[in-house]
């Protein structure tokens, strides 16, 4: 019997018992939809977390804390190390920064702000992707760059802090600085304790550039970038490395290597190069961290979660397989005369078995298709409705761009493979029973 004839025979027989076949297909579709929707939660949360991590950090960035020494100690990164990092293949840039070891107080007119003050290598910053929203890069020692939120954090000097700041620690709108920053002269005030008294030095600077706005709304950047010459001037005044303050409890602070760096980041040419560079650095005893390390851990956890969810979803399909088994068993009983006629005219038992397996597969395939379509609809509804439910019921704002359910192409394929395997197993015994039907008994309509 040709495949075409077998398909026609199967469809004709299925039409004779539409209600039973329809309910069996529906049960299979529900099982498939349950498997896909349940598993899609794992895929969706995984995708959301990875997107959030890669969105808030530069994915090709490798932080270097130091070089491992004996007894779990880390030595500071120096110019010698920087030269080695830059010689590594597929490294695009090596950013190195030195931090002023006291809060820099910047004043302009009647406004002021305490903020982190940094010395950096500008060419490396630009290669790594540093951009300006306004202005230009410094060209002189007394020219500085400031972060995007520097102006928003300037507060009046003559107003009490309790009046200036809101409950979130931000400057209230009525007290914010509304003037221009580019070309604006500012004074950097640094201090030191000398013979028990606090002495202050004022350094005149000019703002020439403002950094680009941070990628995330909740991120703030109010740093001030000064030149190496200004840092040297501060060190001459304080008499300490990086402008450290002589605290009464510690009159002799630790001296830092003038050519060492407080913050070093290596940037690869692409995300694919991060792991290779990280491994080379680790082999040379550098303590590193990159977003890839975090992603690897997250991927392992979510892989286990997704496998577990698929396993739980498979139980629903196994339950639906009971219906397929029952439908096929009844089909063998009802079609005993037809089976007898087929055997009487010389039909091969393998052909009879194949017909019943084809019917069970057909039911499973229809159920999988309908279940997949339903799963996509449910997934869309969940992603659209869940944020509204969270806002209305719990009075909470859900995370930005949260994807609770995500169905990759692989998930319906996995579902169809599982469904096909289960339906074949469900129809195997009834199909084998059909080949054992006695011709004479079947002709007498007895099984």
UniProtKB/TrEMBL annotation:
What is the protein's membrane topology class? Multi-pass membrane protein
Output the InterPro entries linked to this UniProt entry. ABC3_permease_C, MacB_PCD, Macrolide_Exporter_MacB
- Give the MacB-like periplasmic core domain ranges: 23-237
Taking every annotated instance into account, which residue ranges of this chain make up the domain ABC3 transporter permease C-terminal? 310-435
Keywords in alphabetical order, please: Cell membrane, Membrane, Transmembrane, Transmembrane helix
MF (Gene Ontology): transmembrane transporter activity
Tell me the superkingdom of the source: Bacteria
GO cellular component: a single term: plasma membrane
Q: Which residues cross the membrane?
A: 21-45, 300-325, 362-382, 402-425
Pfam families in alphabetical order = FtsX, MacB_PCD
Compartments (UniProt record): Cell membrane
The answer on whether this UniProt entry bears the keyword Transmembrane helix reads: yes
Does Ubl conjugation appear among the keywords?
Answer: no
Q: Which family is this protein grouped under?
A: Belongs to the ABC-4 integral membrane protein family.
Q: Name the chain's protein.
A: Metabolite permease
Q: Which organism is it from?
A: Peribacillus deserti
